[in-house]
Amino acid sequence: MAKPLQLVRGLRGGLCIFIPALLGPEVSPEELSHFGQMAAAVRQTWLTNSTTFVVPEEGGEAPGLLEQLDGLQITRLTVKGSLPWRSLRALGLWRHIVSLLEEGGGSGKCNWVMKIPVWSYVNAPTLESRLACFNASDTYFLGVPTVAYSPGEEPFMFPNPWGGIIISRGLLEHVAAWTEYCMRYAETMDTQYGSDSFFDDYTFSMCMSDLGQVVASNYADIEGSFLLYDRPNHTVMKFKGHPDTLKQCLLVVGKLDTAGQVLHVHDRISWSKWHTSIPCIGESQMGKFSISDAYGNAKDYYEERIRLALYYCKAPEFVHLEKSLSAHLHGLDPRAGQGALATPVPSSARKQRFVEAAEMAWRIWGTSDTFFVSKQPLSELLDSQTFLLENDIDTDYAHLPVRTFLLFEALGRPEWVNACDWYMKADADSFLNVPLIEQRLRCFDPSDFWFLGVPQVAHSARGAMTRFASGGAGYIVSRALLPKLATWAPFCLLQLLQHAGGTGMEDVSLAGCIWKWGHIDVVSYVDYETEVITSEAALNRTRVTHAHLPNEKLEVPPCSMVVHSVRPEELENVAANIKRSWHERDPARKCIPDQHRLTQGAATLLSPELSHLDLEASKLGKTYHWAVYGEREFQVLLACSQQQAADNRTL
């Protein structure tokens, strides 16, 4: 069997992680096997190239320990003099770690050093992104603070052992000197430093506090970034209840007790990362909050320099945008705004496939009032239909709300604000049946405040809900609402930049903005089951994106107005299938609101699945029920159905 690597030189990394494997001869075979299984789970899931296991000094390890760690990077402790190792293992461990690095005379170089038990899961990529907010050359002692109480002494903050300890490069040199002193001092006194009854991390933290007046600082939202419990079953239960889309924001999860638990946590966090619009620094709502214990002892939630570092942990262009917006909006009133169908489609020249998607959308369903929004020209084909928005930021999907707010602010300009009756924001990966959409919009009065779409519900981490119009299905703003929204948009954008760095779900952000300033909710203008195809289930059921043989039966609704999401090469199939379905329909059938389904929808109350926070809110009278069609849109669509049924021009 190959010997595991003994790593003593050449250590490199932005974040170097050390896992204690300090199992001596006294451990049982069962304990050794259990540790080996957990180490194997780490290797299978979150292990990084700069993760190292720390084993006891030569001859001090449990028989078979090295075989359990076969293939993993290890470093062996060295013992100097007659120091009683077991009583001071935390200090000795840190002294050894630093000795491997330049700051302690070694050759390794790490910006950050983390000590974490094998029983915890580390979301290393997200953790490194968080640490990138801080300057590693400064002195940082980071962790998830917990409190120890001793009779006659002030409460003492030290890192939760399952959350790990993180030390910055700037503090490592001090750690080397302080741990050396504390170990020599402890040899001569029977104090906390020499007691086996004290936690390892507590011992290390006491040394840091006594010699350097350095206390562990919180560096992330304790509720949203960590799940740390002594009982593994409790940890797993809390992880299961944590919102799936926010699991990617968890930095450390522990204690875990089986390899299966580690694999489950890894799989769910990996799946969560598909949701790229989630802001993991949502706690950048950086008021000067404090935390307190049951005895009334309070401290700042974040040390001031950490609070500011997190707040400004944004790309430079968003920091600039926030500052310029803040200066421009200072003293203005968001409610002081101005009292055919234009379809802006946010586009991008960053990648050729984005341009090709816009070109295909233009060829298949675009009209003379379809405009592709970009900061720069897209292609010769699209030149005449490109809305060059000079202050647009061609960014990633996570920052799409920034583009949306900038777009609607621009649509408030004189040349746009009264140019059309309706403004529909659409995506290039959608198919729009523009004639049918225009026909349906004739049911509504554009001089009233209308926000139309396919309503959905978003849950926040703290239980609140936002009813929003699905961005993929497109949403529509009336001529009367547009100037109001154009005025509100920069204020909402500034708030988004300040609270979440500009990240989030763009459709949720826009709906929240319209509700906050106008108390205008999204309403449905289509029948979700028969007039739009926007879910994976509907795409699979209708097979609208597939090519069909001439005699093959179609399951595509003939009155389909929107299909999402569609690859560029599928758009022609979608258009052909809807056109064929339209021609093969019953000639007496028109694409008008169905009176029976309208009545049924108006009488149907929808209620989303409630979390425990929602249930608490419901006890206070806050309910989350709504009809498929509210009274206002129900009456409008019912009257329109009767009118269009008698109109020979209706499609």
From TrEMBL:
Keywords of this entry: Glycosyltransferase, Membrane, Nucleotide-binding, Signal-anchor, Transferase, Transmembrane, Transmembrane helix
GO molecular function: glycoprotein-N-acetylgalactosamine 3-beta-galactosyltransferase activity; nucleotide binding
Family matches, as InterPro entries: C1GALT1/C1GALT1_chp1, Fringe-like_glycosylTrfase
A cellular-component GO term for this protein: membrane
Pfam families on file: Fringe
Catalytic activity, EC: 2.4.1.122
Residue ranges annotated for the Fringe-like glycosyltransferase domain, each copy included: 421-494
Membrane topology qualifier: Single-pass type II membrane protein
EC top class named in words: transferase
Record-stated family: Belongs to the glycosyltransferase 31 family. Beta3-Gal-T subfamily.
Entries under PANTHER family matching the protein: BETA1,3-GALACTOSYLTRANSFERASE, HEXOSYLTRANSFERASE
Name of the protein in question: N-acetylgalactosaminide beta-1,3-galactosyltransferase
